[in-house]
Predict the structure of RidA family protein.
Amino acid sequence: MAHTDWAARLTELGITLPAVAAPVAAYVPAVQTGNHVHTSGQLPFIDGTLPATGKVGADVSAEDAYGYARQAALNALAAVDNLVGLERIKRVVKVVGFVASDPAFTGQPGVINGASDVIGDIFGDAGAHARSAVGVAVLPLDSPVEVELVVELQ
């Protein structure tokens, strides 16, 4: 797989990675093991604040949650960048997304597409990943979404 200058790709897309969010409990944002980096679950913080709280399908629209999943994925990429540098990413292996869902809401895959789509925009074929999109009762700080990544390094 050809190496791409991921930082240049972000610039082309007009995307600036945020600062790494401070952990809200006893963990680190990302860990390298062998040639993989696993991120902790990332919330959609923007400048240290959650843009919304509550359940998707009740308090938060699926469309807004899609954007929050995108932001959470960018926060996860920022954690990878901070640990090892974006240029070391060979491919995105897995995206796991959690959606705090109203009991009647069944659109979790569409919400987590916010994460998958931005990963695809940035990494192209190297962004094709396995994925889980899981509905849950509640997330930390009442966040509507949480996203974690596994990436393979060069």
Residues 38 and 150 are 5 Å apart (CA to CA).
